[in-house]
Amino acid sequence: MRFDVVVMGGGLAGYTCAITLLDSGLSCALMSIGQSALHFSSGSMDFLNALPNGERVYKPEAALEKLKELAPEHPYSLMGAEKTKAMALEAERLLNNWGILVSGSFTEGNHLRLSPMGKLLPTWLSQKDVFWVKGDEKPLWEWKKVSIVTVKDFLDFSPEIISAQLNDLGLQTKISSFTLPDLEILRENPSEFRSVNIARVLDKKENRPLVLAELKKATDCDALILPACLGLNHPSFISELSKELGIPVRIVPTLAPSMVGARINNHLHREFLARGGVSMPKDVATAYTFKDPDAETLTIEKIFTANHGDIPIRPRHVILATGSFFSKGLYADMGKIKEAVFELDLLDYPDQREEWTKYDFFAPQPYAGFGVKVDENMRTFKKGKLVTNLKAAGLVLGGFNPVLQGCGAGVALVTALVAAQSVLAEE
Question: According to the model, what pLDDT value does residue 257 have?
């Protein structure tokens, strides 16, 4: 099997790179082992919320130079401020062109999204129907009174907590709930009564008028807030409700699994297939060969996978977007951290295992910054040798803490685009 590009990893970075390359006329296969981290995400996309020293970031563009001083190995620092900005703006354009409609602007700075626990957190991009508000330290409310409407007995969303938090921030709130007959089957099994499954029920064409009728009972307000458990397979459902009700309707992500994250993943997968991409789900690389292992630079010649046995894949280019420890792109044994597929060179990390973690669970964990070493064009290395046709992107990279710095989605998007540009430049 011959492809121009093989992408390893079916998350935000993998799909972004693959779709970009397909749009440029290259043939592309994408391997994935299962659900990506998108299924556990907020559905919003952070670019940079804090510097490594803990300093809060409101304008990511203005913070890039200081970031380079504090974290020279951060992917943004490697690329440089000018290229980072260009890739951020390109990501905004592409997401909207691909049908993932987002609000937010890199040049304007972060806005505030509402978390499942009612906290307003900074972020770069939010989907159009997600609850977000302008502001940095304080929200700039457009409304005075909101109704929080939940699904009866839904445990992954707490309207009481959200109401209390919003009240403290100056909003008036009231709470109500509803149910539909079709939800009763799900309710019999608490493990099935989750946001994605509920959305599959509420999105049914025959149930949409019933949802509308229930929500009309709670419209004596300026806006409605719902848990993100509708709009999975019918993304325009929320905007249709807003139009019918005459007031804004916004959804808030629930505890994982995330419907809004799964919606992004599903949409990207459809866009990938629509362009002729070849999907290889639940497949992993088991072996690979180099054209000349003794050369000064290395070039991947063949990749063997679990599902294809002794039939090799012969790619001209490979993109590694397998994620970090959570997605099994990296793993640790008792004395060493390793990249899972090619055992690529990693950024330096402490030799002593006890230095990989902090005893305080809530302290910044050193291992979060471990990952693959790349140059400014996302090219990788093995035993000090450049691997000419292997680029890496996303959370498999090292040099940053995606949770502490709030930059996971931003790194995934911009490094994927840089990796794609690097491939196209070589073409």
Answer: 85
- Residue indicated by tokens 């296969």: 29
**What pLDDT was estimated at residue 233?**
86
CATH level 3 topology of 2-102+263-426:
FAD/NAD(P)-binding domain (3.50.50)
What is the 3-class SS of the chain, one letter each residue?
A: CEEEEEEECCCHHHHHHHHHHHHCCCCEEEEECCCCHHHHCCCCECCCCECCCCCECCCHHHHHHHHHHHCCCCHHHHHCHHHHHHHHHHHHHHHHHCCCCEECECCCECEEEECCCCCEEEECEEECCECEECECCCECCCCCEEEEEEECCCCCCCHHHHHHHHHHCCCEEEEEEECCHHHHHHHCCHHHCCHHHHHHHHCCHHHHHHHHHHHHCCCCCCEEEEECCCCCCCCCHHHHHHHHHCCCEEEECCCCCCHHHHHHHHHHHHHHHHCCCEEEECCCEEEEEECCCCCCCECEEEEEECCCCCCCEEEEEEEECCCCHHHCCEEECCCCEEECCCCCCECCCCCCHHHCCCCCCCCCCHHHHCCECECCCCEEEECCEEEEEEEECHHHECCCCCCCCCCHHHHHHHHHHHHHHHHHHHC
The domains of the chain are located at: 2-102+263-426, 131-252
pLDDT at residue 137 in the model: 81
Low-confidence ranges of the chain (pLDDT < 50): none
pLDDT tens by residue, 286-304: 999 999 999 999 999 999 9
For the chain, the C-alpha Rg in angstroms (whole number) is 22
How do 120-123 and 145-151 pair as beta strands? unpaired
d(CA 279, CA 262): 17
CATH 3.30.2450 is right for the domain spanning 131-252: no
Report residue 163: phi and psi, to 5°.
-60, -45
- What pairs with residue 121 in β-bridges? 113
- Residues 325, 331: contact at Cβ < 8 Å? yes
What integer pLDDT is reported at residue 269 of this predicted model?
97
Burial 91-102 (b: 16+ CB within 10 A, else e): bbebbeebebeb
How far, in Å, are 197, 389, 409 from residue 320 at the CA level?
31, 11, 16
d(CA 132, CA 139): 9
